[in-house]
Design goal:
- This protein is α+β, with helices and mostly antiparallel strands.
- It folds into three domains: 53 residues, no CATH class; 82 residues, GMP Synthetase, Chain A, domain 3; 65 residues, R3H-like domain (Ribosomal Protein S8, Chain: A, domain 1, 2-Layer Sandwich), CATH 3.30.1370.
- The chain is 39% helix and 23% strand.
- The strands form three sheets. The protein has a three-stranded antiparallel beta sheet. A three-stranded mixed beta sheet has the order 4-5-6. Strands 7-9-8 form a three-stranded antiparallel beta sheet.
- Helix 3 crosses helix 5 and helix 6 crosses helix 7.
- The radius of gyration is 21 Å and the shape is elongated.
- The chain starts with a strand and ends with a strand.
- 35% of the residues are buried.
């Protein structure tokens, strides 16, 4: 699911600027469709505002491809559980992240609770509520897109790159456990059969989870092949 909003303004450019401010992105990050041009009536009577639809481009939502060993702004990594006492500045960023996500879900007309926190020094937002599957999307794609957009917004607000985390009803933890279980079963099968196994295409974040699990599994190793979005993990015997 993409992210888009519709805005009115005295001119189309004014409406676009309002949309960019709300989305927290730059002009080059969006596509603009002019729904209605502004018109001026006689003696100010019958003036009509411009209306535009501003859509965040897919490549911005998906994030730039990342190597499995590196963290990216749009990754689905599980935040560190190490103890960290949040500073005032970190809490301020978390509140900014919460406000931004509240704005997004309001535009999408999906009621939910938004809870900000600080995880290992980085802003984190957890969503809870009923029927939030639409926000997670197929294999977590919508959640990852929203997290990428959130990180871009927070980085712009902070003036430097910030990795912000977004989760919905503990989805990331459940997904990590599922991927680790799958990697363990396939690793055992490869080790016993001596035959390599190619997994389905995965995001960079999901591939990292598999690679980290296989790294500590005896008798097998892993690597990635192909190009995104069809890049896959191959598990092979040592």
């Amino acid at each position: 699911m993409g992210i888009e909003i519709i805005k009115d303004g005295e001119t189309a450019e004014e409406a676009v600027e309002v949309a960019l401010e709300e989305l927290g992105v730059e002009r080059q990050d969006v596509d603009v469709e002019i729904l209605e041009e502004s018109t001026k009536g006689f003696l100010g009577i019958g003036n009509k505002s411009a209306r535009v639809k501003v859509s965040v481009r897919p490549e911005i939502l998906s994030g730039a491809p990342a190597e499995e060993s590196q963290a990216s702004a749009g990754s689905m990594d599980i935040p560190s559980t190490e103890s960290h006492e949040a500073t005032e500045g970190e809490m301020e960023l978390a509140e900014t992240a919460s406000k931004f996500i509240k704005g997004l879900v309001t535009k999408l007309d999906i009621p939910c609770e938004v809870e900000p926190s600080v995880q290992d020094g980085s802003p984190s937002v957890m969503l809870d509520g009923e029927e939030l599957g639409l926000l997670i999307g197929r294999r977590g794609e919508t959640l990852q897109a929203m997290q990428t957009l959130l990180s871009a917004h927070i980085s712009r607000h902070a003036g430097h790159r910030v990795y912000a985390s977004l989760d919905i009803q503990g989805y990331k933890e459940r997904k990590q456990e599922s991927l680790e279980g799958l990697a363990e079963r396939i690793g055992q099968k490869v080790a016993s059969s001596g035959q390599a196994y190619t997994m389905r295409p995965m995001s960079a974040a999901d591939r990292r989870i598999v690679h980290m699990w296989i790294k500590d599994s005896p008798g097998v190793s892993s690597f990635s092949e192909g190009q995104d979005p069809n890049r896959r993990v191959v598990i092979e015997p040592d």
